[in-house]
């Protein structure tokens, strides 16, 4: 299915924006690039408390517009209730094809990057699932406790 | 309860080590510091593929020893199956009071930092819970879909 406003010269995939405190988003992106190689149509925006809120919202809106090739944009933020998430939610006013998911971690980002040609709602579900499934007691006291149950 | 090997001049809390690809761990720590202020007894170690595995394991072991004031150490890694996690699991051989949890995100780290005087097993459970609870469809297509259900 090709969306009505698809621009055929662009990639047929969902745009990704990481919105975080400090440079957490760009470092996460670098970690992902170490694993999967160069990543396109994915930007990281850090919310700088010294900038005016309107300036940040403008940057976010510009990024959302730039990255939406008709397939929508998925915004991954660091934590619910934080300024990066709150400002990202402001994007929903102008962008119907946009999702915001909080609590980004590396498994979530990697899944999103590997599946971004699926429709936005489906991609968001995959993101949630991968984020949750990636949180594991991998060893030690807690794992032994769980294994004993 | 004071552990047998407690060093009274040190903090009575669990040590935290972030082990990740690239500088993701240190950026996550900086994001947390922006929110909660300076953080003690918490280090970030990035796993550099150009270093010998043994060198990295030595660095991890030294950090675990340094940060364990008798209350144990919680290792938060980026993803299950990745080299940072695999090398962290090697620490379990020498450290009985050590937990490894994968898929670290900001809500998990913040919860751990705010609760690190509880026993290690309990802290690990809190970490898992906070990591999961922090992953939320905050707005957009998916949230509307969930709200409709």
Describe this structure as you would to a colleague.
2 copies of one chain form a homodimer. With 149 residues, the first copy, chain A, is α/β, with parallel strands linked by helices. Chain A has a single domain, classed as 3-Layer(aba) Sandwich (Rossmann fold). In chain A, 44% of the residues lie in helices and 17% in strands. Chain A has helices spanning 24-36, 53-67, 83-89, 106-114, 120-133, 141-148; strands spanning 15-21, 42-47, 73-77, 98-101, 137-140. Chain A has a 4-stranded parallel β-sheet with strand order 2-1-3-4, sandwiched between helices. In chain A, strand 3 (73-77), helix 3 (83-89) and strand 4 form a beta-alpha-beta unit. In chain A, helix 4 (106-114) packs antiparallel against helix 5 (120-133). The interface between A and B is large, with 55 and 55 residues. Strand 5 (137-140) of chain A pairs antiparallel with strand 4 of chain B.
What's the structural blueprint in terms of helices and strands?
2 copies of one chain form a homodimer.
Chain A: E1 15-21, H1 24-36, E2 42-47, H2 53-67, E3 73-77, H3 83-89, E4 98-101, H4 106-114, H5 120-133, E5 137-140, H6 141-148
Helix pairs in contact in A: 4-5
Largest sheet, spatial ordering of strands of chain A = 2-1-3-4
Largest sheet of chain A: 4 strands, parallel
Level-1 CATH class name of chain A: Alpha Beta
The CATH homologous superfamily of chain A is called: Phosphotransferase system, mannose-type IIA component
Instruction: List low-confidence stretches of chain A.
Output: 1-8
Number of domains of chain A: 1
**What's the architecture of chain A, going by CATH?**
3-Layer(aba) Sandwich
């Amino acid at each position: 299915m090709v969306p009505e406003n698809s621009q055929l010269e662009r990639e047929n995939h969902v745009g990704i924006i990481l919105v975080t405190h400090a440079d957490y988003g760009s470092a996460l992106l670098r970690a992902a690039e170490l694993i999967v190689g160069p990543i396109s149509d994915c930007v990281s925006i850090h919310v700088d408390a010294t900038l005016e809120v309107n300036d940040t919202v403008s940057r976010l809106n510009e990024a959302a517009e730039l990255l939406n090739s008709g397939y929508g944009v998925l915004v991954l933020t660091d934590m619910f209730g934080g300024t990066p998430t709150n400002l990202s939610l402001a994007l929903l006013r102008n962008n119907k094809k946009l999702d915001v998911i909080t609590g980004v971690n590396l498994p979530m980002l990697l899944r999103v990057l590997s599946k971004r040609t699926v429709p936005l709602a489906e991609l968001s579900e995959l993101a949630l699932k991968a984020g949750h499934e990636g949180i594991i007691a991998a060893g030690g006291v807690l794992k032994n406790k769980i294994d004993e149950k």
